[in-house]
Amino acid sequence: MNLFQVFKQSFRFFISKPMLIVTFVGVAFIPTLYSGFLIRGTWDPYGKLNELPVAVVNLDEGADIDGKPMNVGRDFVAELKSNTSFNWSFVGEEEANRGMKGNRYYASITIPPQFSKDAASLAGDQPKQAEIVFESNSYYNFVAGQISENATRELKDKLSQNLTEAYSRSIYSQFGTLTSGLSEAGAGAAKLNAGASRLAEGIGKVQTNLSELSSGASKLNSGMRQLQVGADKLKSGASELESGATDLSAGARKLKAAGLKLLEGATKAEQGSVALSSGLQDAKDAADRLTAGLQNSAEGSERLRDGLQAASSAIGDLTAGSEQVADGLRQVMDDNADLRADPRMQKLLAASQAVANGTKELLTGNKQLEAGSATLDEAQKQLLEGSRMLSEGHMQLLGGAKELRTGQKQLKDGLEQYNTNFGKLVDGSDKLAQGASRLSAGANDLGAGLDKTAAGTSKVANGAKQLDDGVTELNDGAIELADGTRELADKLTEASEKTSSIKADDEIFRMLAAPVTIKANNERKVTIYGNGIAPYFISMALFAGALVFTTIISARNTVVDGAKGIPAFVSKTLTFGLISLAQSLIAVTILVFVLGLEVQSVPLFYAYTIIVGLTFMFIVQAIVTWLDLPGRFVVLILMIFQLASSAGTFPLELLPDWAQAMNPWLPMTYSIRGFRDVISSGDYDHMWVQAGRMAIYLVLFLILTFLYFLKREKGHAEEQTMPVKV
């Protein structure tokens, strides 16, 4: 029997049974029924939003802005009445609540009583955001609630633009008044600048004359001060000279007598300085001996500290050894009951523990001695340093004593000469006292006259200086005033020109209300919802059509007796393939030419649908061929997983993690991608990539089916005549 003989006989059998032909035709239309009704049922739901009932409740009480009445709620309702996005129902609050509870409205929009007041607060000190209450009736229909909510957001944006535009008009209306005021202020500032300039010029002249006056008065005052100072010095000097001359005369006589006593004292001082030098030399020798002793003591304290540190280390070792001995005895006694009961061992253990405790206390005491030796060593070092400083001080004292002895010798010699010539000094001091008395009387008269003159010139100089300083500050202020008024006039004039040039037309107001607009690029936009959902529905329909066909025709058995192996495989494959081809051709023809589904390329749409249909058919055939009736249940489960994981409705990123993990392994993922390319995007290269992936599934599952029939041909299963189901 050749490869196609079984298929030919089966084909003749099928066409001889009218009921089978009708059944095959019905099965061929299964994908068309699935995809056609589903796509047509969801063809353009957004095009009928004007039939979706939405309740609108206006409770706005209105408000005043800049003395003008405003009712934003009424304007919003008027805007909605001209808006055909939904079937707006303008009702009261109670009717809206009844309609929402009775599922007569898919959503409600309520404008609160204070809506206009909140909107008008934008121009006040405490602006408050205006609110519109939106309620979606998602219990009634979730999708309708979402659609109405999105549309309400657009209305909210439009209302916000209208409020912003009205506020902008109010602001711009004030610019005319502002421009007039700025112009008048600029003219006044210009006049003020002219007056300030003249004031600065006059003050400048006054300042020049006052500077000259102040300079002359200052020089006069300075000269009088110098003269007064000289007169005061002369007066003071004359008085002091008189007093000193008198004292000198009296003291000279006393000094003559005291000079003799001083000479006698200087002689004794010279003798004492000699004795002081000798004593200081002895003290220095003693300090040197003290330094040497302290040096030896410091070295001894260092050796003591080192010895105590060594003793601490040895005692530490002894303590550790005694503890080990005590622990060893305790362990031996614990291991031997006889030793533990022996009194001598108990005394030995107690003695070893006492030794251990004693060594610990000895170690603690030695540590304290070690700390004390460190303190002693530090004190010895400080004493040694002090002794060295004492020795150096004695050296300095000894040098000073030698210098003192030399000075005393010189003093004695000088006093001897002083006493010899002191008689002449006594006579001269008497004459000096008489002349100083006359000079002091004349200096007193001169000082009194100069005091009166200096007081007058000082007042003149101070007044001229204060006047000059005040005029200088006044001149600086006048210059700054002139500069400031000039800049003020320029800025006010410039501001007036700029504010007068500001445009305030409707285009500006609209731009301020909506400064940014979005320009939609519809190059990749699918305008009809049916076109967007078609890849998902077509893939599901082709898979469902393949599953339904396995309930009509056995996947294992043929109507030809004795058919087995490869001929049976060829017959079944061709039968399933022809049904799949018929399903694909009918579905594409009805979708494109009857329902009006728009695709980028009709021939490629036919070709890709055939590839997808054959792939799904051979996948279902392989599973049902191997598993028979349970295989249909497996196919149904596979279809459910594909519908959930193929990202046909929601984006892949929005699916659960398990669905995202399964997505790359399921064939419907790639069928949907390819249908999107040929229906919407026109990316045929990407479509052929998906077709190649579908072909891989097709070949793999054909091989699985072939392996089943090959196994059957070798006698692992008996051939059975296929029961015909009508």
Rg (CA only): 62 Å
* Distance from first to last alpha carbon: 29 Å
Q: Give the DSSP E fraction (strand runs of 2 or more residues).
A: under 5%
Which series of helices and strands comes N to C? HHHEEEHEHEHEHHHHHHHHHHHH
Q: How much helix is in the residues?
A: over 70%
Number of domains: 3
**CATH level 3 topology of the largest domain:** Helix Hairpins
The mean pLDDT is 79
* Adjacency order of strands in the biggest sheet: 4-1-5-6
Outline: flat
Structural class: mainly alpha
Total number of β-strand segments? 6
Query: What low-confidence regions span 5 or more consecutive residues with pLDDT below 50?
Result: 716-726
Description:
The protein is mainly alpha-helical. It folds into 3 domains: about 130 residues, abc type-2 transporter like fold, CATH 3.40.1710; about 260 residues, Methyl-accepting chemotaxis protein (Helix Hairpins, Orthogonal Bundle); about 190 residues, no CATH class. About 80% of the residues lie in helices and about 5% in strands. The chain is built from 18 helices and 6 strands. The strands form 2 sheets. The protein has a 4-stranded mixed β-sheet with strand order 4-1-5-6, sandwiched between helices. A two-stranded antiparallel sheet has the order 2-3. Helix 12 runs antiparallel to helix 15, helix 13 runs antiparallel to helix 14 and helix 14 packs across helix 15. The longest helix has about 160 residues. It is flat. The C terminus is likely disordered. It holds the Pfam family ABC2_membrane_3.
